[in-house]
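Collaboration report, partner site 2.

Our partner group contributed sequences for two proteins of shared interest, and the home lab folded both. The records are reproduced in the order in which they were received, starting with the first partner submission.
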Amino acid sequence: MRVKQIMSAAALVTIALGTAGQAQEPSTEAAPLSAVAHPESWPVLPLKRHRDPRVEARVDAMLKRMSIDDKVGQLLQVDIASITPKDLDTYKLGSILNGGNSAPNNDEFAPAGEWLKLFDAFYDASVKRSDGRPVVPVIWGTDAVHGANNIVGATLFPHNIGLGAMRDPALIRRIGAATAAETAATGIDWSFAPTVAVVQDDRWGRTYESYSEDPAIVESYAGQMVQGIQGSVGGDFMKTGHVIASIKHFLGDGGTGGRDQGDTRASEAVLRDVHAAGYRSGLVEGALTVMPSFSSWNGTKMTGNRSLLTGVLKDRWGFDGFTIGDWNAHGQVPGCTNEDCAPAINAGLDMFMYSGPGWKQLYANTLREAKDGTIPAARLDDAVRRILRVKVLAGTFEAGRPSTRPLAGKFDLLGAPGHRAVARQAVRESLVLLKNNNAVLPLSSSANILVAGRGADDIGRQSGGWSITWQGTGVTNANFPNGESIFTGIEQAVNAGGGKATLSIDGRYQVKPDVAVVVFGEAPYAEFTGDRPTLEYSPDDKSDLALLRKFKAAGVPTVAVFLSGRPLWVNPELNAADAFVAAFLPGTEGGGVADVLIAGKDRKPAHDFHGTLSFSWPKRLDQYVLNRRDAGYDPLFPIGYGLTYAAPRTIARLDETRPKGVASDQNALFVRGRVVAGGRLDVAGEVRQTRVDRVAQEDSLRFTFASAGSASIEEAKSIDVTRESNGQLSLLVDYRVTTAPTGEVMLGMTGGKTATVPITGAMKPAGSDWRQIAVPLRCFAEGGVEMAQVSKPVTLTTTGALGIDVSSIRIASAPPGPVSCGVR
């Protein structure tokens, strides 16, 4: 057996770094939790990048010639879904961005050329001036968090949780450089990466964006990723092929108790010594921007915390780049709205990130406040000076039109062979072997292998969230032209060895295979939809477990390849498999899985397992936080665990006890034809209910309305979907019409008040295939529903006869394409 334990001593306990950089044991004295930082207790960082007098003189000269209108414009970044290039003829804004669901022509599958064409249009408008004042080009920011993941054809690397398992900082830098080059190919010049959250509660839906629960691992990676994206200070810094980096989310986003946009309740020492780890290396390597978090620290929103944004980040640490807000996060600061937030600017926010129709109001309000002194002139000038400084350092003024830049339009960089090779290596190194009883692995390339499971031939599922679409949903393998599924990788390896690989998603076979490889795991998600109440894998759908047990009962040796954005309680699945591989979210290079699983005919592997856990693996589904500093630390597999072929070990049968009364996912309302725990189905009128099949036996419910009636899901305790509504999520219903409606059909939600939207147009024709309707939650909010107190998240009402089958109802991101408040 080989269980890697390579953590440094400093990583095994939380330490406090004094101003002299000396390690000290944290104080055990209880103290009230404050949201005011004491910058003098934070370490001084040895920054590699220092101010250049020539840059400063250039910035000062521009600043003196700018009007107050020009200056305020630089403080705004607006989502491309809310603004047109023509707007920049008049409003000289600092930046634009594409949000998770925003894309050229409202087409998330737009080819790379359309992205470059749109940036040209914005750029051209931004530099159009005839008044003699300085021309300041606009810059474009994008969430390139595991590759240039918004662009069809880009190389998608493993998400951060998998990269953390590699323990390979040098490879991290190569990944950053490849990502920057592919981003630059579209002309885009700013990546909102890396995420350096030190996640402490794995229920959080953004856990996969974290390298590790261990601050030492995060610190070892952040600086390397910044170097890869921006280049090395004193070397290729911001030269061709590099783009602006943004370290996020400042600060403590990994400590919010598993809730997105939550509140990190922690001492200043923990905030400093645990959650600030990535900044200690990322800022040292010259990161040009920092993104404050949506979340709070001890009840105070980070976007409005002056003691941290100004006191620590800028004054103590000497950060001279600029801070960019998260998606309308400034609107959550007390005293603010999305369209008016001087307090955030005064606290140290330099640029708003705004999405919505009211950006001109935000501009007007900010301009008024700059003129009347609500935003002091010195603070305004400081913010603009920082933005101009970054643009000078990034070469924005000399770069010219996006399409004329050195790498722009070189779309062969997207999915380039060299980049794919880096990604494939990262996949190999990130796989963690949790179990290999009876030495089932490696598999002989001459064997007859059955490959099953919903993740086997699904590049979108293996890539996870932030993969072309924000939530990673609504994509097919065709949307990843340079990608390879796990099955395809296995098939190629086995064919080369004279064996046979057969794809059977549901596990059916005619000839008994030598071995089965079952690829399964979490469906893609991003923030909001990814938060979970427990760490139990798929509590409402045990079909993956049934598939594993089916092979076990048939005496077929079984290898489980588990796709997930976090460690999860999978004791039953571990017991049902002979070998179990934690693949996390490997991205588009599925062949990297085959490189480790498949050996030659002699079963001598070319690649052994390399990865070790960067997160503790739970023994129970309620082990949300597994802190190695606690005397009761008792995971199933500790951080640093990982088996190899060279050192096998047999894993005994695990306890499968599941506590009763555990909470379920509030955003999953109706799963496999049944209301989830915590809710009940109410019907009114003459309604007949029968079970029908969609994918599995009786996994859907048929409603037959003889006349006017309704069917509602009523929660035993009201639910709060404010975040989901603000996050532009939708109510999704998977349905099939069996009898066309004879009256109007409405979809409603109740929270204090009931609001409905018409969906009659989506109920035709009868006998149609399964479809999905998406109604934005904002439609109900605008109708007066109190989104913090939703008692009936869905009500289907008809004024006449109707026949409809329903298999699933949930709150999630809508598929690509337009959505509206009702289909008439």
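Second partner submission, folded after the first:
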Amino acid sequence: MEVPIRSRRWPMMGRDVELDRLPGVLAGRHFRGFVVSGPAGVGKTRLAEECLDRAVATGFQGVRATASSAAGVVPLGAIGHLLPAGLDLSDPAAAFASLGLALARRKRRLVIMVDDLHLLDDTSARLLQQLLGTQAIRLIATIRSGEPVSDAVDELQNADAVQRVELGALDEATVEALLERILGGRVGHRTVRELFTASGGNVLYLKELVEGALASGALTDGEVWELTARSLAGTPRLSELISARLAAAGQEGNQVLELLALCGSVGRVDAESVASSDTLKALEDAGLVQEASDGKRVAVGLAHPLYGEVVRSSLPALRRRAILLAQAARVHARGARRRDDTLHIATWQLAATGTADPALLTQAAALARHAHDYRQAVVLIEAIPEASRTVPVQLMHGEALFELGRQEEAVELLARVDATVRSEWEKLAVTVLRTIILYWGCGRSKDALAVIDTAKTHVTSPDGQRVLRVLEGSVCAVSGQPTRALHLFEELDEDIQQAPNINVWLAGMMMKGAALAGVGRMAEALEWAEHAYSTHQRIDDQAQLPHPGTQLNSVVIALAQAGRLGDAREIGERTFNEFVAAKAPLPQIWMAWHLARVEWMAGHPASARKWYAESLAVARRINQLLVVRSALSGLAACAAHLGDLDAADRALADLSKYPRGFDIGEEVLGTVWTLAARGNLTQAREELKEAALAAQAGDHRFAEVLLLTDMARLGGARDVGRLNELAQVCDGPLPSLHAEFAAALAADSPQRLWQVSEAFERLGADLLAAEAATASLTASRRQGNRAHQTPAATHRTEVLTARCQGARTPLLATTEATAPLTAREREIAFLAAGGASSKDIATALGLSARTVDNHLARAYSKLGVTTRRDLATILAGARE
């Protein structure tokens, strides 16, 4: 991909409302001038340039002028180069009137763009106002908000003929669209949020941040563009721009900026301890600081997140130390009454001196951990002398390392702690955390269950045994044993306030919803998941799990499998955005994965691919391995649907490097659909059959439904009679509908397939609806039945297919080109078109080479071709 360079003009986005006003200005109906105002960097000049380009495209002659401080001291200094040679300026009034008449008689009307109108000299301003008044010109100008202007410029920008537009920062959705346009690919949600937050939607700042991140390698391209660095450095030019802006603060104001840069938002009382209220007001008026209500106090903070980076970079070490210790002393003198005051004092003292009181550090680490600031928690804990690190402190350390993706360090630390514990409580606490890290962090389900088994011989109390059972159930729920998990989860039915370990109970409640959905009890799963969410919300202040929204993972699963794909999507996307805003990466991984699965079930492979990539990128960034194999398989399946077989192959090659712990039977889909895309339908069906048997053995009934349905879609409709059994034991509309789809394919019934298509469409399963409709039309043509071959039916099928984001599956790809072929002929034709020899095809399908050649001969005859090259051409056309 071509890296954006400074000379490259970024596309205009998010300014449609402003651009819609331009035609009226050019026509001169009510306005003849268009002035764009706003703070530095929001894109005023870029919008004015776009307006000028559009004016020229409609027949105007465009000219540019740039006002400046230097030109502003010279009359007509900014626009003198626009005046005709020989114009007599000894009598300005007569010269201006003459110029106006000359311009008004021109065939091509003149449009003048003036950048930085606030710097324009008075003579130029009065000339432009006079020319506007005589309708001799059209004016497009930019002016920076808050800058002082002369009376002449003020009269010009507020003239009746001038329309003024205040340009604000871009919103997050526009920033995402802009980034994807300039980078030429999908951008991860977390990366969009970080760039949006860091830039504040300011286009200039955004551009410098992106260029700095690309140059440093902090912004990398995989399936999605992702930021890999902790902080955004930007470019030297960005630092210069911000430094110039901060220079307006003055000496006293700079002391406030330094305090806020090092300590974050502080109370107004603290801010006034270093500067007067007049200085604070001046800083606020200049857009450098802002005030906000924080409970009963008024807090003062920097107006833009990048200001702090620039201020901190220029602070000498001794100055930093003095500011931090002074602020710590101020807060301590007030009694450290606020909940997070202890955290702040310890953090400031540690940053200033490299040490602090161990008790204070321990308390501060607990507060940082409660706020899910695990990086700060690790810094505080590691500053505590080892002799003062109790078992609870070491557990907190292990958990923070886990949340930061430092899994091996956490595993080693907790193994050492486990060897030294004395009490049953300590043994149980270490076991819980070791199990979580081994399974959820490392994907090592066998090791996790072994740790639980070992603990059973040491933890003998009834409450301790109950905790171990729920913990074991959480591992079993998604490692191939949902029925066993539900048996172990019987403990969860009681009031959580009576639970011996609230956090283990909350995790178990989340996994119980997933287990219920897995065995096909969707109504119970949804009811339970909603109960778990409300319970978590009610006791969140007592919980250590990252976010109550983690319980909504099970809600999304249950809604999707109950056929409510739209509801699942809406809740999942809203919750994912909450996780991003809360900077909670671990919940992001799983919600992104569930959203990918929702989009996959909906038949939207491009959307699913982006969510799988999002899940994978975050998982790799924080080294959470459990989901990686499944996300890679999903990526491969989506890429295969979209015809990107190189990407599918890369994902499958990568998949083998990761442990297999998260097992619901669907991990095979990447291999299956890559095989199918290459025409290897028999092998794809064999993979599905084996996976379905494994899912059956583990009671993953809904996964079995999906796998068997894919077998039917790939030519095995007569071999999936078990779908009827599953439809009897799984609730919700989808299992029965999937069974009917397979039966209709086996019967080759146009009417039944059409009805199935309509049912899938009502549920939002667009790809299955399109496939069923396509299969219905194909069956009608094959049988000579014109009842279903109406223009309306064809149009509906095309509309459904268009919703599938370019997905091409065997049922869709063979609509026209291979309609006359039997299933076996189609399969052999696709393999031959892919370059396989008759001998290879015979070996793969268990046939003789002569039988393969006979099938190929019939396919050639039906399709009107004579060579494999012609066959490949016609089948390639079917896929496109």
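Feedback sent to the partner group on the second submission included the following. The radius of gyration is 34 Å. The mean pLDDT is 87.
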